[in-house]
Automatic annotation (TrEMBL), chains A, B, C:
Residues 115-127 have a biased composition (Low complexity). This is 11-S seed storage protein, plant. Pfam families: Cupin_1 (PF00190). InterPro entries: 11S_seedstore_pln (IPR006044), Cupin_1 (IPR006045), RmlC-like_jellyroll (IPR014710), RmlC_Cupin_sf (IPR011051), Seed_Storage-Functional (IPR050253). Belongs to the 11S seed storage protein (globulins) family. PANTHER family: 12S SEED STORAGE PROTEIN CRB (PTHR31189:SF35), OS03G0336100 PROTEIN-RELATED (PTHR31189). Residues 115-134, 189-218 are annotated as: Disordered. Residues 37-242, 290-419 form the Cupin type-1 domain. Keywords: Disulfide bond, Seed storage protein, Signal, Storage protein. Residues 208-218 have a biased composition (Polar residues). Transmembrane segments: none annotated.
């Protein structure tokens, strides 16, 4: 039977994400965050229920995530769920794990280019302006990766019939984040109190400080200015502002029926337009998402083994600004089993990564993905915009870059064995058709 | 009466500076420098008197400045005061708060392009070279912002009839600073001992270490090499070197009558020439300063409300190399009152910022500038070369980028109220004519 | 007699490296890594013996190296010594102190462009592929500086008749290193256990943690995956893999007689070809080394005094990607004596730097290299790709950039003395012919 495997050295940090079995990480607190002797595939530790969905955070203080300077959260949004507008101080990649919906981003300094020239139905008629206009919104679907630059407010809406699930990676280590390395979400609406308290508790656990009994705040988002100030800013009555500030039900995902917005006809083929570079390196008109699940988008493909789709800054130029990239892999046979080896040759991980689990591979640690008995899929996130993993075996690998005699000498094997080690795997780094057969012609284009 | 206000989310760190009321910040020492629950407008904590002026430092260990990785000092220089040559390991922006004078910078590798072809009056005649030559010097005046790249020695001279006051921002967090985050000034002349000891004491307070009783040093600046070595380097007698190293009166600002240097005729219109990029990203011939106080330079203007002038790397390209920018605002009516809200919706600041006070707005914290009853001016410094604040209200704001129905749903208000919130302020982000009137046509060009 | 000297302010961190006298650094542990009151020229603290050479590390936890975020090691490789393949998570510069040999690098994604079209002698003939092919290898010799981007596996071989000695600088502070600031070498072959344990012990000393009694590992390099996994990846029998993983003698430098590899004819003139930029900013075809010892390559030369050769990104463009540079100096008369002065005017170092010793000059500290009685050579490494030191005396110096009257006023000397200080040294920043003579015409081109 065909077996698939992948042996690599990570040039950047790899966050392997796969897809539910409880295992908690209990690293000792090292002074030194990357002295990793053991990795665990980890799962979310907190869950915040909202009206129309829930938010789960992986522990941002686990050693592996601190070493990677990354925070990860997952949101599950029911049909008609609106994820209230928020932004963060760090670059984000959002992977649509399942489902579909709509995302709106408000890019600073960009015009509201979605305009409705049809008169809207409304009573009263006392407004001179009858038509709504807003910034660009976009549809997303399973397999999409959405790029969210730091500081860009955004919202999501589920107008489909099934829940959608997103996994969001916040790169706290990027120089764009000028705050410390605690994840922070700044909500512009809603009641994020529970989420914020839970995140704070995780941080205090790490610091060993005692959580002071916190009083309940009436207003807990970034719009909590004095009503009179806001009334002036928005030029509306203070009553309206008090309504704005009223904290409804707990949470940041609310249920709204049939939300309407201006939208182009659905079957639009988005082009990778490069607008002129904006002030913050953020464009008004540019590609903000790309699909990595469609089989025809694969960069490496072997009909017997599987496929890998890279998403780097050549496909999505904005990634260069973010300093992040992603990859999705599918192995037709086998659950994904990973082994990771540190600089001391110690196996810091050797296990299956189950659906919904997260594994962090620190920079330069050697890792290997291996087929189990069922089909496997994973998504990797890199804190680099164009990661080149160095394969150890196969075409273009480390082993094939070293002279045969050096291989023989370095590993104290015969010249003939060196030749086997070097050339027996004539497939690309990802695929081999079988463990015992002789080299095969490559099946890829 | 017209009221002016500004509601924003800061994309970068903002150091709002305004301009004497003692308030000290006594943050508890958090392990975590950006867990900010309370901001204070802060004032300098140390003052070093020199012969012809004085230097004041804000506490570089206050939590807000450590979170921002910024140090701030103010110098007041009397007429005929010479600020002795120094440089730092971090990028600096110098704002001329009042007065005028002359600044000289010595850019490494650049020629002495200010040359005197007139024979100088001097006795003796034993020198083959009778003419002085030196690097470019420039006049500055109130409202100028001067850019000082890391490592560039510079000096200031007051040849006017009134004192000048400068406020200097050192961006310690920029990658160019390869030392730790303590501010350091390296003086090439003078006696900076008192200033250095005071800065050290502030650092030791933070670390809780006891200040060892320090002995008095005879020579305390960067030219304190062995006299015999320097005599060789400069090819002069050791006696001359001993004079060079003699520490005069304490301080770094001395009084010198009628200092003369080679200078172009005064009414020179400096152009924003872009020389060829130098080795360190520093040019020999380029624009190093720009005025932000002149009303005609305003980027946003409303005759009833006020004006804002941005200084970014499009106006002063060197700022792109420094990763900093600035802004000056004037509100015709009202002292500047600020409210700042953190990610938990807590109001961490809500007060007037008086003349000479400093307020730090951490990245992404929402803030609002608001008119009091008198005219107000402020200068903001950003640790970003092209900051885009996201306005929350008015034209181009967050609220106008979101579909009306999403606004209504997110804040649980009626469709009509959403429309008011979204469109009632039809002015740009800075100005509204009145809090209760209906939308007005924009008054700006 | 002609004396040579150099007085500068370092714009970047300078690691002065020179030629064997034991002096250990015992800085107190400051909370603050760059509060340097005393520098020492330091020597390696650990030595790991391998079969065909030895490796020495400077203490990566000494205050000066931590302030500089740099680690330094020296390798001495006997004839027929093979330095086993490894890579690191940080950018490296390797200086060939003496001897010559061959280096091979395996750049990820680059093809094996060294191919042998001659049939090789081998028994059996059961392989379809009879010819070896591997990535580019290059000869190096004394005075070369080799650039090793982070994550690029590389090996060295000594095919000459005498040992070669390399000094390697790892820039841990570069943003490319996403792990913590402990140096890590990832070996792909060999038994690096002793080296790793010694490095770990140094780190634990700093942290004050007790070294747990460590058990002996059977396999200690990055290829220590489960044999069955590797057998599949390489498509070879598990027996071969077990041989690969067998840990031979301790160490990372083994002896191999007459290693053969495909190589161009020796007297090749390598050009500074700039290939198209690769994904990681690393090229497949580009210049990876440059000599800085050849007299004819000097940038500053005075037949009486000495010479200086800079190596920056204009000569070796890859350095811009690494953010490092180097310089080699030769003083014909005199051992190199250095004095370094901190921001408080304290002389933190004033001594000879002997062969094999390392001196760190923190950013912006003023330093002076001065002739003793014998010839002197040194190599400086900078954590900047195009460092411009600001000379204090001579042509193009700080002193010559300041108006004469400002010099007189700043140092309280007469106008005539100021003129001497400013113009008496009319040579370039490096050379003066004598300490007491009058200005001479410049001897350089």
């Amino acid at each position: 039977m065909a077996k698939s495997r992948l042996l690599c050295v990570s040039l950047g940090l790899v966050l392997l994400f796969h897809g539910c079995l409880a295992r908690s990480s209990n690293f000792e607190q090292f002074q030194n965050e990357c002295q990793i002797n053991k990795l665990d595939s980890i799962e979310p530790v907190t869950r915040v229920q909202s009206e129309a969905g829930f938010t789960e955070w992986w522990n941002p203080n686990s050693q592996q995530l601190r070493c990677a300077a990354v925070a990860v959260l997952r949101e599950t949004v029911e049909p008609q769920g609106l994820v209230l507008p928020s932004f963060t101080s760090s670059q984000q990649l959002v992977h649509i794990v399942e489902g579909s919906g709509v995302v709106g981003m408000i890019l600073p300094g960009c015009p509201a280019t979605f305009q409705d020239s049809q008169p809207q139905q409304h009573q009263g008629g006392q407004f001179q302006r009858h038509r709504d206009q807003h910034q660009k919104i976009q549809r997303f679907r399973e397999g999409d990766v959405i790029v969210l630059p730091a500081g860009v407010p955004h919202w999501f809406y589920n107008d489909a019939n099934q829940p959608f699930v997103t996994v969001t990676f916040l790169h706290l280590g990027n120089i764009v984040n000028q705050l410390d390395r605690n994840p922070r979400k700044f909500y512009l609406a809603g009641n994020p109190e529970e989420e914020q308290k839970k995140l704070q508790r995780l941080q205090q656990q790490k610091q060993g400080t005692e959580s002071e009994p916190q009083q309940h705040n009436e207003c807990t988002n970034s719009l909590c200015f004095k009503p009179e100030y806001l009334a002036q800013a928005f030029n509306v009555d203070e009553d309206v502002i008090r309504k704005l500030q009223e904290q409804g039900k707990s949470g940041t995902i609310i249920r709204v029926k049939n939300l309407q917005f201006i939208e182009p006809p659905r079957v639009q083929h988005e082009e990778g337009r490069r607008g002129s570079m904006g002030d913050n390196g953020v464009y008004c008109a540019m590609k903000m998402k790309e699909n990595i699940a469609e089989p025809e988008l694969a960069d490496f493909f072997n009909p017997q083994a599987g496929r890998i789709t890279n998403l780097n800054s050549f496909k999505l130029p904005l990634l260069a600004h973010l300093g992040m990239s992603a990859e999705r892999g599918v192995l037709f046979n086998g659950r994904a089993r990973f082994q990771v080896v540190n600089q001391n040759g110690e196996s810091v991980f050797d296990d299956y990564v189950e659906k919904g689990q997260l594994l962090t591979v620190p920079q330069n640690f050697a890792f290997m993905k291996r087929a189990g008995n069922e089909g496997a899929e994973w998504v990797s996130f890199y804190t680099n915009d164009n990661v080149k993993n160095t394969p150890m075996a196969g075409v273009g690998s480390f082993m094939q870059g070293v002279p045969e005699e050096v291989v023989a000498a370095a590993y104290q094997i015969s010249r003939e064995e060196a030749r086997e080690v070097k050339f027996n795997n004539q497939n690309n780094f990802f695929f081999t058709s079988s463990s015992s057969s002789r080299p095969q012609p490559r099946a890829e284009a």
